[in-house]
């Protein structure tokens, strides 16, 4: 099979194509109907299929004879723990925890928020929800109480599952006070919380509302998988948009299972029994798709790593994990390797470990800069494969399709569109751009299975954000170009979303926090290029008339406010007071030119600006 014919079939005969791919999955009732179109080219995949994602991930592997194979390996340098679960053992734990939730009234369609560190219980809780047909919404542990509260108010969960603490290198972060604060702030109150107590911190439980994980599990009756419609939501994952309010990306069960299983073959070239490690966090889409679901759908062994690329204990950590668990495929964000390279530029620590089981390295989440790419190639001699995707799509939009045809790589390119994604670069009015010219990277509808079906509770926002801007296309929010060979180059967001250490954040959200400071009249937050983290946010602040606060003191307060409201991962550390903000005559802040200044790029004075001198002043401030 070659890439071109597979790709052409996927876009010319999508129903036939996905009917065939759907056969790889154990359905409860296989779909007869493959695609049901709604208006505007959007629609539903496998509308009459019945499935259970926990059954596909777990029980199906037992039926296939993999019950004694390792399903999950937990490797935690921060607690000095290694623990593994076979498919039999993981299924038993998941069925039990599903029993815990069921006994407390959680069922089909109910939401459950999971706010947990990288412990096996997070994976167990996700799969337990799936088993009951309940909808999980995992919130990344690095988000502050306010962010959790926003998600509680939006998802209206029946329950919250949490742990007593997370561990960041050597810092122990108690989670329960954050959960309590979030519930207090949210305008919806969950009925109950299940708390996994870790030895480092014992959380206080609120009588009548909170229950202890271990105690509940001890007496639980295991629950069987519940058949759900392929189109029923499996999960909601909130992601940053351009406004302060995060978007709840909704993923269905059937399309997700089919697409992710296919992606394991196509994108990663992985098969049953392989050891797959996505060094990410279950709170991000990479964690959902490639720590939890896809490797299990494929019958692989997946690694859950509670540690960092550096400092736990050193920059050899990734190679040590690869050696200990004979990892075949490693997937992480370029930032992680930039951190490793900074501490171990000659890769001396890599040489200490036997990483001979490793076949390929995969990078995504942000642009793979050519120098990190070259460093990895030189020191590992492995294929280093960039791929481009988003929370919204759940799997790679562009990749090197190694499972069917390994293509030549071009540094800076995520290679070619994955079968199913008819990627085109277009102008804002949908006209195709010539090869090599930059424009909006868009996907001609329909999207393949596995992509978002809507935005939770706000279908109008889904349409307005993704479908309306370029009729007939899904708007990715990224800009880029396609070269003469059909290779796709992603050059960065065209909106106010930034990418900090592989974490997607909204500058609009940070602006809301900064603007709420009593001394601030107006502000603007932009992403500035950062050698290690890709981008970091920087704020420009205009004081209210008569405000007398010292700029350093203000910066300190703003930094603290962003940490408190959004979380430390925002990495908001710089706020500069300016006399004026550069605006167009109609009053719009000129973010693009501020970004160029922040990045130290060439910039020119836009013709629309009302007062060009202000740009020089801002440039000076950045240079100081
Ligand atoms: N819970 C609580 N706090 C967290 C957290 C979590 N799960 N994750 C990060 N934080 C905190 C950190 O402790 C740090 O706090 P500090 O400002 O008090 O020091 C802050 O958020 C910033 O964290 P981070 O962005 O991770 O920076 P770092 O300097 O600690 O580490 C890297 C740098 C490169 C090692 C780290 O960013 C990394 O591993 N990146 C890979 C990203 C990744 O896997 N992305 C997923 C997409 S594939
Ligand atoms: P997230 O939804 O957190 O996965 O972030 C998605 C965004 O990250 C995309 O819209 C891109 O801006 C960026 N991104 C992800 N992967 C890549 C990649 N391989 N190259 C360039 N940018 C990427």
Automatic annotation (TrEMBL):
SUPFAM superfamilies: Acetyl-CoA synthetase-like. GO terms for molecular function: propionate-CoA ligase activity. One of its GO terms (cellular component) is intracellular organelle lumen. Residues 65-444 form the AMP-dependent synthetase/ligase domain. Residues 3-54 form the Acetyl-coenzyme A synthetase N-terminal domain. Residues 509-588 form the AMP-binding enzyme C-terminal domain. CDD domains: PrpE (cd05967). It comes from the Bacteria. InterPro entries: ACAS_N (IPR032387), AMP-bd_C (IPR025110), AMP-bd_C_sf (IPR045851), AMP-binding_CS (IPR020845), AMP-dep_synth/lig_dom (IPR000873), ANL_N_sf (IPR042099). Belongs to the ATP-dependent AMP-binding enzyme family. NCBIfam families: PRK00174.1. This is Propionyl-CoA synthetase. It comes from Marinobacter segnicrescens.
């Amino acid at each position: 099979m070659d890439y071109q014919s597979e790709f052409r079939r996927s876009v010319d005969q999508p129903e036939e194509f996905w009917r065939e791919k759907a056969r790889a999955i154990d359905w409860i009732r296989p779909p007869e109907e493959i695609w049901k179109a709604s208006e505007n080219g959007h629609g539903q995949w496998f509308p009459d299929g019945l499935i259970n994602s926990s059954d596909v991930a777990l029980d199906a592997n037992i039926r296939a004879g993999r019950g004694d194979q390792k399903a999950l390996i937990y490797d935690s340098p921060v607690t000095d723990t290694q623990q593994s679960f076979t498919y039999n053992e993981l299924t038993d734990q998941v069925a039990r925890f599903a029993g815990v939730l069921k006994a407390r009234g959680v069922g089909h369609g109910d939401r459950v928020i999971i706010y947990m560190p990288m412990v096996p219980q997070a994976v167990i809780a996700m799969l337990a929800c799936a088993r009951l047909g309940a909808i999980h919404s995992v919130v990344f542990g690095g988000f502050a109480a306010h962010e959790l509260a926003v998600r509680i108010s939006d998802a209206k969960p029946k329950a919250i599952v949490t742990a007593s603490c997370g561990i960041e290198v050597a810092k122990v972060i108690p989670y329960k006070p954050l959960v309590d604060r979030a519930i207090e702030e949210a305008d919806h109150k969950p009925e109950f919380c299940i708390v996994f107590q870790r030895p480092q911190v014992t959380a206080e439980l609120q009588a009548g509302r909170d229950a202890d994980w271990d105690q509940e599990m001890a007496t639980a009756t295991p629950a069987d998988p519940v058949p759900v419609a392929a189109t029923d939501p499996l999960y909601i994952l909130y992601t940053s948009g351009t406004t302060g309010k995060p978007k709840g990306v909704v993923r269905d069960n059937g399309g997700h299972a089919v697409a992710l299983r296919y992606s394991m073959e196509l994108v990663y070239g992985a098969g049953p029994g392989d050891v797959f490690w996505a060094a990410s966090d279950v709170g991000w889409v990479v964690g959902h798709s490639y720590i939890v679901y896809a490797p299990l759908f494929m019958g692989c062994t997946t690694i859950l790593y509670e540690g960092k690329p550096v400092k736990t204990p050193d920059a050899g950590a990734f190679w040590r994990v690869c050696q200990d668990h004979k990892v075949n495929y490693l997937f992480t964000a370029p930032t992680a390797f930039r951190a490793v390279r900074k501490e171990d530029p000659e890769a001396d620590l890599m040489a200490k470990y036997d990483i001979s089981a490793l076949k390929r390295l995969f990078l995504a989440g942000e642009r793979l800069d050519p120098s990190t790419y070259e460093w990895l190639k030189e020191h590992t001699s492995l294929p280093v494969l960039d791929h481009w995707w988003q929370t919204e799509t759940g799997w790679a939009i562009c990749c090197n399709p190694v499972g069917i045809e390994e293509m030549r790589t071009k540094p800076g390119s995520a290679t070619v569109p994955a079968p199913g994604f008819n990627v085109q670069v277009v102008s804002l009015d949908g006209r195709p751009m010539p090869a090599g010219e930059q424009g909006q990277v868009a996907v001609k509808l329909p999207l393949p299975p596995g992509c978002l079906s809507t935005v939770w509770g706000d279908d109008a926002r889904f349409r307005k954000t993704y479908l309306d801007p370029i009729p007939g296309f899904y708007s990715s929010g990224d800009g880029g170009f396609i070269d003469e060979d059909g290779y796709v180059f992603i050059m960065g967001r065209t909106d106010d979303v930034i990418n900090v250490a592989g974490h997607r954040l909204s500058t609009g959200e940070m602006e809301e926090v900064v603007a709420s400071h009593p001394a601030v009249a107006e502000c603007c937050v932009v992403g500035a290029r950062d050698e290690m983290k890709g981008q970091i946010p920087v704020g420009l602040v205009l004081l209210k008339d008569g405000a007398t606060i010292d700029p350093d003191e203000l910066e300190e307060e703003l930094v603290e406010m962003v940490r408190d409201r959004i979380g430390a991962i925002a990495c908001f550390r710089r706020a500069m007071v300016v006399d004026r903000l550069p605006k167009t005559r109609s009053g719009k802040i000129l973010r693009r030119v501020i970004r160029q200044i922040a990045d130290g790029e060439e910039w020119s004075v836009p013709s629309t600006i009302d007062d060009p001198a202000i740009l020089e002043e801002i440039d000076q401030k950045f240079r100081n």
